[in-house]
Amino acid sequence: MPIDINRLQQALSVEAERGFSNLQGKQFLFADFLHVNLREDLPENWEMSDRLQAQTLASQYAQYNDLSLSRRQHLIAETRRLLYEVRRREIAETSALSGITKPQKKPKIEAITATEPKSTKKITPDTEIKDIEGIGSSLAVRFQLLDLHNVRDVLSYYPRDHIDYARQIPISDLKNGDTVTVIGTVKKFGCFTSPKNPNLTIVEIILRDRTGQIKLSRFWTGKRYSNRGWQEIQKRLYPQGCTIAASGVVKQSKYGLTLENYEVEVLEHTQDTIQSKTVGRVVPVYPLTEGITPEAIRSLVVQCLPAVSQIVDPMPDRLLRDYQMIRLPDAIAQVHYPDSSATLEQAVIRLTFDKYFYRRLVSLYRRQQQKAIHFVPKSQAIDQLEKIIPFELTNAQKRVIAEIRADLQGQTPMNRLVQGDVGSGKTIVAVYALLTAIEAGYQTALMAPTEVLTEQHYRKIVEWFMQLNLPVEILTGSIKTAKRREILRQLETGELPLVIGTHALIQDGVNFARLGLAVIDEQHRFGRDQRSRLLQKGEDPHVLIMTATPIPRTLYLTNSEIEVSIIDELPPGRKPIQTVILKPSQRKDAYDLIRREIAQGRQIYIVLPLVEESEKMEEIKAAIQEREHLQNVVFPNFQIGLLHGQMSSAEKDEAINIFRRGETQILVATTVIEVGVDIPNASVMLIEHADRFGLAQLHQLRGRVGRGSAQSYCLLLSSAKTQTAQERLQVLEQSQDGFFIAERDFQMRGKGKDEGTEQSGHSSFSIEDRLPDEAARQEIFQIAREAAERIIKKDATLENFPLLKAEFEMHYQRLQGGAIFT
Ligand code: ADP
Ligand code: MG
To answer: What whole-number distance in Å separates Cα of residue 547 and Cα of residue 522?
Structure first.
């Protein structure tokens, strides 16, 4: 099968739109689809360098699930760029062959200011871009790469910013930390590849205006940017004296002001015209990809704008009035060329409202089509369980169990997230849910992200299940073939009521007779696709997700269709963990405390920091060395174990079990112990280079201690001196509340905002980013949900709302998600 660039591009764009979650297509997961296709026999006309790059990219898709969000974004951006390049070359070649090597027409800049298009043909929302006057076929193809096919698409290609030329910020007024757009002329351009690292290319532009100058710098990673040709093109893009607008975050460095990883756009190639044409105007700035100039997209939008009046607002008047929304055609016109900042805001609000409204409508509609498995409540096993467990449930546990049991008897499949801080006792809550399903005659599955965790669950649950006379099996990668075959058989016949496992559960060949409930522990470790693959093992099974990483309310509320239960109470008798930040000079104090604790029979974790993927071997080396050092020099009298990510799972289990049995007193570990390990006798958690961890992760690590009744300690060693690093760690000193910590972490990161501002541009922008603040977003989210619920309540089939239904169907297809890459 030859590679189909178009399909790949579509897949990439859907994946990007849906938040890089490795979507499930009809047949393939997104990453598998890319992996396979980029390795296909590539056509002759591909250049060698492209083939090589395709190969490299293909192999990265094999590891897609393990990549961080920003690396996924980056990978996708790289792939899009490659495909775009190849495509562009193909087009150039074919037009050269057919002899129509038209000189590329420059898009008409005057169009920006013109209000009427030149075209005499009437433009409608369905007019195709290629039929618009002044748009050549090659330009039309480039717009297609942005998913812009007709006028309607263009009109809903919203600007990510507006530049108000009337209110420029003079460079001399810029302050550290400001997010700004500055306009100036290029004084100097430089582009060079790091002599030490051929993968790193740096572009630097000195920009100046009447009041001063600022350095723009941007890093490009990848061999292809070390290419002379590429650098020459960059240089030609920003000739001396041309006027550009650059946006980004201002940084004060010892070399003066800089704007790092800026977004830039060329306004004018000569200096003189800018005044006359743009002063006093508000100009939209669109998310772009390579190959399309800002002028081209602006000019296209202006040509399409007259069609706005033909757009019909599908939203019932009643809703618009009740929620005080402006009409859709007005919103679209204003979001591009606003009359004022107030009308712009109204437009953004309406468009965001629509986005959430349709999303909710689709989800409600889909849900009512699903039929839930109805569990008839029995409580024999549950009553028995209550007698077995050695503690009394907390009120929070009781409440959450009741919420779950109500869901399990409801009309639609449960889709519930249980958030509970580390140690809040989520496992037992899951067991109540599992038993409810099992008693109703269904099979159940519990999936955990690591073997260690899976074993731990198994150990605890098997003990309870044995007393209830219920079989339970564990399925991981290290289960031997014969045993595995037997488990699969029992799942298929339906005789096994519960299987606990890792990813091994979602492999082909694992089939359930009747899966009624899937419980997924520590969900942030699983991609959305992995979850959905588990669910596909049954017919609309109930789903319960458990997480100890408190996702900030602000995030989950506006991003998912999941119900949330919170266990906001720890079992009684737990002492708060004493948390202290230590300077390197206080290391001795830490070691003294450790000796005292071990003398009292307690155990210690020492955690070493995360390193880059590429430095995996270094991490191992560091861990081994640190253990040796501690063993030989610092604690010669104690037994010290080691746990790191490159060990086989058998070795890991061994290390943890030895520690569990108390044969080692100290366990030196990389962050593999982050999730869920439960050893109540451990009382000290010492974290090296604590400033290199995220707050949520530190909180997780801290949660490994304080599980028994003894006083526990968390020692954060940090040599970081900056105020932000200190402030960050202090949050942990102040609070043990995972929710609070997560919110603070979220806020603090939001402020810095320099993470993940990758060059991928277009895909990462969405309309709600233009709302003034998070509160506004939540409010719109709430009312949009309510509006959708009202509609569905009134008319579940939408027969009485034909316009809405048409619009809905478009969104429905989209949200089916990934159907494209089958
Ligand atoms: P997590 O929410 O972190 O997964 P676990 O379910 O592992 O927490 O529970 C942590 C520990 O607390 C376990 O040893 C568990 O048996 C115990 N536990 C759970 N609920 C209670 C309770 N209500 N009272 C006392 N101990 C409890
Ligand atoms: Mg747990």
So the answer is: 4
Query: Which candidate, 584, 551, 616, places its Cα nearest to that of 690?
Result: 584
Q: Which two tokens stand for residue 108?
A: 């008409």
Q: Are strands 542-547 and 243-253 parallel, antiparallel or unpaired?
A: unpaired
CATH topology identical between 380-546 and 578-735: yes
**442 in Cβ contact with 512 (< 8 Å):** no
Say which ligand is closest to the CA of 423.
1
CA 676–ligand 2 middle distance (angstroms): 5
Dihedral in degrees, nearest 10, Cα atoms 228, 232, 234, 238? 150
Lining residues, ligand 1, CB within 6 Å: 391-394, 397, 420, 422-428, 548, 571, 678, 707
40-90 pLDDT, tens per residue?
777 777 887 788 888 889 988 988 988 887 788 778 878 887 887 777 677
| Superfamily covering domain 161-285 | Nucleic acid-binding proteins (2.40.50.140)
The CA 423 to ligand 1 mean position distance, Å, reads 5
CATH fit for domain 380-546, picks 4.10.1110.10, 3.20.20.70, 3.40.50.300, 3.50.50.60: 3.40.50.300
Which residues make up the environment of ion ligand 2, defined by Cβ < 5 Å?
676
Q: Is the pLDDT of residue 117 over 60?
A: no
- Please provide the CATH number assigned to the domain covering 578-735: 3.40.50.300
Which of 3, 7, 53, 44 has the alpha carbon at shortest distance from 26? Answer: 7
Domain chopping of the chain, boundaries: 5-98, 161-285, 380-546, 578-735
Give me the amino acid identity at 230. W
Per-residue pLDDT reduced to its tens digit, 165-216: 656 678 888 888 777 778 888 999 999 888 888 888 888 999 998 888 999 9
Lowest mean pLDDT among 44-53, 95-104, 584-593: 95-104
Cα of first residue to Cα of last residue in the chain, in angstroms, is 14
What DSSP state is assigned to residue 112?
G
Burial of 601 (0-12, 13-18, 19+ CB in 10 A): exposed
Find the angle CA(316)-CA(155)-CA(287) to the nearest 5 degrees: 125
Ligand 2 centroid–CA 375 distance in Å is 25
Q: How close is the Cα of 546 to the center of ligand 2, in Å? A: 8
